[in-house]
Amino acid sequence: MSQLYPLKFDPILKEKMWGGNALMNHFGKNVSGLQNVGESWEISGVSDDLSFVSNGFLAGNNIEEIIEVYMGDITGEAVYEKFGNEFPLLVKLIDARKDLSIQVHPGNTLAKMRHNAYGKTEMWYILESEKNARIYTGFSEPVTKETYLNSLKNNTLRNLLNSEIAEPEDVFFTPAGRIHAIGEGTVLAEIQQTSDITYRIWDWGRKDEKGKSRELHTDLALDAIDFNASGKNKIRKDVRLNRPANLVSCEFFDTNILKFNIVTERDYNLIDSFVIYICTEGRFSIRWEGKQEQVTKGETVLLPALIRNLDLVPEPDATLLEIFINTERYQI
């Protein structure tokens, strides 16, 4: 019988000029008087924003502390061998009431050289969207560096962008180097490498209440942008009830979706990784070794790698995202 159990964490809430109240109203976050909450960091190993356990006997310990004690029993032996006490993924819920800036993230090589950090490949799963809400992702067609720089100079970058309507259950995958932005009226789940490095390219000409523009990172972004990353990017899967479906498989993470209304057995003996569940609809319980942990809409849970077999019990139905690292694909 293992001591470890499915771990919940206190959300780290971030006020943003573009944020709103959907995370409180629809996903159960306690904003405690904050205004315009744009992000809820659900699980974070970012050094200045470590997540703290909120349930069970490990409550009050941060994620680095529990990995330091339990090592591969938390993250998986191969994951621990590569990342040590640093948790390799960052999971967020994001509420965009206004357009976010156009930005880009560096890959591992550039991020290591400049910041001694990992790069940032990410994916978005759309939870809610207003009519005609958009995601900006890549260029509409490949561009030259010169064309791009001219568009910045002439304030016409928007003319080069690929934009797509965002609807609930849409998926957008953004490798490092692909320019992107979340459009207004969108609520989504973001899964990414543990990195907080963002190069802001363009901010729609906005100014703050003092008439100042936000800082842009034009020169830093130049070496990070993939000028060939272009075209439509939306992923839309036919998801069948009670059958897991893969949404994204990449070097850094795998994400599946499961909609279920019957007890569903999950067997993780063939992966050497932790598993993250994000409950996007309904409610369910995790049942393992005679124990049970309830999870409701808006909650995120870290399943230690030591727990290999469990049942998911819908109450009466639920939808979840299931995230893990395929260590055979990762260049460990």
Question: Any key phrases for this structure?
Answer:
single chain; 332 residues; mainly beta; Jelly Rolls; 8-stranded antiparallel beta sheet; 7 helices; 20 strands; globular
Q: In angstroms, what separates the terminal alpha carbons?
A: 30 Å
Structural category: mainly beta
Identify low-pLDDT runs.
none
Main sheet?
A: 8 strands, antiparallel
Rg from alpha-carbon coordinates: 20 Å
Q: What is the H level of CATH, i.e. the homologous superfamily of the largest domain? A: Jelly Rolls
Give the averaged pLDDT, no decimals. 96
Quote the beta fraction: 35-45%
Q: How many structural domains does the protein architecture include?
A: 2
Describe the structure.
By secondary structure, the chain is mostly beta strands. The chain folds into 2 domains: 7-235, Jelly Rolls (Sandwich), CATH 2.60.120.10; 245-324, Jelly Rolls (Sandwich). It is 14% helix and 38% strand. It contains 7 helices and 20 strands. It has helices at residues 22-25, 63-70, 72-75, 77-83, 108-115, 145-153, 218-222, and strands spanning 7-8, 12-20, 37-43, 89-96, 102-104, 122-129, 134-139, 161-165, 171-174, 180-182, 186-193, 199-202, 234-235, 245-249, 254-260, 264-267, 275-288, 291-296, 300-303, 309-324. The strands form 4 sheets. Strands 1, 14, 15, 16, 17, 18, 19 and 20 form an 8-stranded antiparallel sheet that branches. Strands 2-3-4-11-6-9-13 form a 7-stranded antiparallel sheet. The chain has a 3-stranded antiparallel sheet with strand order 8-7-10, with no helix packed on it. The mean pLDDT is 96.
